[in-house]
Amino acid sequence: MIARGSPARYADYSYRMRKYVIMGVQGSGKGTQSALLASELDLVHIAVGDIFRWNVQNHTKLGAQVRRTMAAGELVSDDLAEGVVKERLTQHDWNYGFIIDGFPRNERQAEFFLESYDIDGVIYLVLPDCEVRRRVMARRLCDGCGMDYNLIDNSPREEGRCDVCGGKLVQREDDTQEALAVRLREYHEKTNPVLDIFRRKEYVVTIDARPDKAQVQQAIRVALKLPPYRG
Ligand code: ADP
Ligand code: ZN
Q1: pLDDT in tens, 9-41
Q2: What number does the ligand 1 atom closest to the CA of 47 have?
Q3: Are the C-beta atoms of residues 63 and 56 closer than 8 Å to each other?
Q4: Nearest atom, ligand 1, residue 77 CA
Q5: Catalytic residue annotation
Q6: Residue spans per domain, the chain
Q7: pTM of the full predicted structure?
Q8: What's the fold here for domain 17-128+175-224?
Q9: How far is the CA of 75 from the centre of ligand 1 (A)?
């Protein structure tokens, strides 16, 4: 028998498949925190908004269907969102599990999700709306590689240029005051009830999203009883 806390047990533990959902308002750092968690634990990071944006940029049929809705800050139809998630998850490249960001965003999507997948935990990043505005307005994306910057604490070396590929830094089409107000309203109205559903199942760990990204990641690791973040 392997003793509790021994290295063998620890190694064994780290190979268990894990399925997480990450939630939080716009600019709370879902994308950043998911990426940090996914790279060390070999999880597949599924960002539904990124998949839609990729389709818009590449002028696909789906892109044409969602472009205007997204730019206005509204949610696209449940059928389209569920279709994207279903298709991504049927690829079965997630041997060690996945972390999904941007889904579910309303009660119907939550029901669909819970019928299809059992999850191990929901990470809820909490950020006050005033801080959301400050962060979202300072956000820039590279139009070449999609790398994401923040003019508050993560500026590129050369103004307006991506450090990685030299691409042009642009604002997301929905990072305007008007669209952000719609997105926040949608979030509070439709996505908060999803949290209540998950809370009833005792899946939710609540994390303060205000500290720097390494501290937030560390707090997630502690809350989910995962190995510490090595930074
Ligand atoms: P944010 O959380 O900052 O608003 P995302 O990148 O997650 O941004 O999503 C951008 C947009 O993509 C949303 O405003 C919405 O139009 C669409 N979208 C993403 N996920 C969903 C979803 N699960 N259901 C409906 N629409 C979605
Ligand atoms: Zn780039």
Answers
A1: 444 455 688 999 999 999 999 999 999 999 989
A2: 7
A3: yes
A4: 25
A5: 30, 105, 139, 172, 183
A6: 17-128+175-224, 138-174
A7: 0.88
A8: Rossmann fold (3.40.50)
A9: 6
